[in-house]
Amino acid sequence: MESELYLDYKTAYHKLDARVKILLFLIFFIAILQFQNPLWLIPSVLLVLFQLLISRSVKNLVRIRFVLLVLFISSLVMWNFFSSGVTPLFWVFEVESLMYSISRTLLMLMIVSMGVVLISTTRNEELVMGMIKMRLPYRVGFAISTSIRLVPTIASSLLTISQAQRSRGLDLESGNILERLKKFLPLLVPVFISSIRNTNIFGMALESRGFGAREDRTFYLEMKMGAGDYVILTLGFLYLIASIGLNLAGYGNITGLTRF
Amino acid sequence: MNDTAVSIKKLSYRYRGTEKNAIEDINLDLQRGEFLVLMGPSEAGKSTLAVCINGLIPHFHKGKMEGAVVVNGKNTREHTVSQMAEEVGLVFQDFEAQLFSTNVELEVAFGPENFAIEREEIGKRINENLAYVKLSEFRDRPPSTLSGGQKQKLAIAAVLALKPKILVMDEPTTDLDPISKMGIFDITNRLRQRSDLTLLVVEHETEEVLHASRIALLKDGSLVKVGPAREILQDVELYEKLGLMPLGIPRFFKSMGDTKLPLTPDEAETAFKKAGWKISSEKYEKMVEAEKSEQKALASKEALIRCRDLEFDYPSGVKALRGINLDIYPGDMVAIVGQNGSGKTTLAKQFNGLLLPSSGTITVDGKTTKEQGIFRLGQRVGYVFQNPDHQIFSETVVEEVSFGPRLRGVDKAEVKERVKEALSAVGLEGAEDQDPFSMTKSGRQRVAVAAILAVKPEVLILDEPTTGLDYREQHSMMEMVKHLNESGSTIIFITHHMWVVAEYAKKVFVMKDGLLLLEGTTREVFSHEKELLEASLRPPHFIQFTNRLGKTMLRVEELSNYIVGAKK
């Protein structure tokens, strides 16, 4: 069963230094927060799409399509409750609030996409290394990467368990929300138990291999910033500065948005 | 010079929250360079003793420890597990959970990195150890794409990279197919020849411990007997008394009244010829004929499960089944065997509609699985998953077992009746109110089987029903399955345990790379040693021995009954 999130391709994006990829993730996070108006987000959207394509990470996005769809629809509706404008459409929707919810939805999708790009193109160890080189303690970096690693493990045990319970006659597809939630109990208990068990062995295996034996630690993986890395990073910062600059200059807002 | 590598003195340990000591007053010394095998039934304390050596007890597990373990002069109480890692390497049974890197190289590097070894030296150790376990060509692969046997080899390489003086392996081959097991034992064999390394291996496959220098037998937390391997292995009675599997070969020669017992197929062949024994061909042919006509009688009915050109591709593009044609008849007891990843489980999941074919057809009782659907089909074809912990969720056995029938709308009185029947079929009468999570693995396995039986399926599929159980538990589990078969259920089981196949299957399907390589009565299949080897399988020593005599005998009793010219 293929369950790794990291996609072992050899694209140019994969070759980027992990630090650059982490920084790009943060840069986009800040840059897209600068705009309320979805039209102003179009360049960012295109940039994110471009990265998704060249890094060949779309596959991982497809895997979580249902979650994305739910988020997409609920976000598109919910933001209208929390914002209001001057040009009414219907019910809680105004032209301005709708625009605002579109941009918030795009923002969320873009951050998820950037996260997916980061995880699909960066090995766990590189991620840890990158974080350490950016002065995060080793244990913190290791904890973050471990929790990312747990996602596919839990997903695959969830799949086996749901097969086991469906074989016993559990029908997950019918019934109202409350009934369905109740049906998940036979899935959650075994997932929980087997995760605890696995984590226990994981902990033992870690210590048995000398985790934390010494204060200092060496790294087999080497990281070097190449010329390409610096170019990309410079472009990234230019984009960030441009976004902040435009915001400060008063561009990118929605006129008539009264509450958000 | 002191050449004691590990010294265990008056060691007792009780896990927190339990009332009994898991191990009791153990005294055992390991000499430098020796290869000691620890054997014993479930709950004997084997794993507990194993993790005492690198300090996981008392540091990781909280409980009450008495006595002392001294490894290379270091008392485990005074050093953390991580600090001990350079002295003692530990390989676990579960090969999934002990690997955590995204690539083979980095997995090996992890240990040395923790000890701040220089990068160049780490590179050297990676090369050395991957070459040692024959994984060099996989160095860039993610461990998750390796086979079970390869994963276990990687775990060994990763531990060896720390250059420990003592290597402890806790049932390293339990979940592996016979040839992957041999791969691991090949490594063990080379390791035991290194005079600087002391080996302690927990194992329950009796055939695999022939090369050990000493065997220690453990039961209920106490050492029963420690001695040279050959001497211990000849003690057939003691093995039976402890609930462990005695070797078939010495068992046979003992039943013939011999006192000097051969252990390997080679020795057995020589001893057999020397004794001047002959097998009665007439009786043998009669038995073979009887088996064939039994299969014929079964096949005269309409096939219950029928696959034609069955193919299945996983969404990832992996072709798991590549054109399977087979018929399974009502009342049969069928084993599906093959290497890890050969498609056994994928095939079995087609039988109850959990997976639907990508092309070709599969019918159950004449109707395709697709038109019947998993909900309806699950009623007729019960499927017991490999790991009982993947299905158990209730607080009591009764609730767990009645879950299936209740989902299917069976009325209360009937549910009660069925639970009673199912529990008595698996030998769990009176356990109704127990908490399944506090039961042993074999107990949980039984609960899982009962939960499926309560739905009253006609066909019962069991995926590795004996994995993780000791010999006595395996035996009683399979006896129970045999009873179900005798009372009319069709049984399909997947297994790596060849003796289970020999003892219980009427018919065997051998799979390799998504294809059926071999099918026939159990006796026929076991006579084809060469084809089995292609599928990474190997009959038990006893059957190999009888194959050399020109007849395939599945059980010790068969051979002793068919011998002519014995002096008894």
Textual characterization of the structure:
The complex is a heterodimer of chains A (260) and B (568). By secondary structure, chain A is an all-alpha fold. Chain A contains eleven helices and two strands. Chain A has helices at residues 12-15, 18-32, 38-54, 58-63, 65-82, 95-121, 124-133, 138-167, 177-183, 185-208, 227-248; strands at residues 88-90, 93-94. A two-stranded antiparallel sheet of chain A has the order 1-2. In chain A, α7 packs antiparallel against α8 (138-167). Chain A is flat. The model of chain A has no long low-confidence stretch (mean pLDDT 89). Chain B has 568 residues and is an alpha/beta fold. Helices cover 40% and strands 23% of the residues of chain B. Chain B is built from 23 helices and 22 strands. In chain B, the strands form five sheets. A six-stranded mixed β-sheet of chain B has the order 6-7-8-3-9-10, sandwiched between helices. Chain B has a six-stranded mixed β-sheet with strand order 17-18-19-14-20-21, sandwiched between helices. A four-stranded antiparallel β-sheet of chain B has the order 2-1-4-5. In chain B, α4 (104-114) crosses α5, α11 (265-275) packs across α22 (541-548) and α15 packs parallel to α17 (441-453). The longest helix of chain B is centred in the middle third of the chain and has 19 residues, at 281-299. At the A-B interface, α8 and α10 of A face α3, β6, α4, α5 and α14 of B.
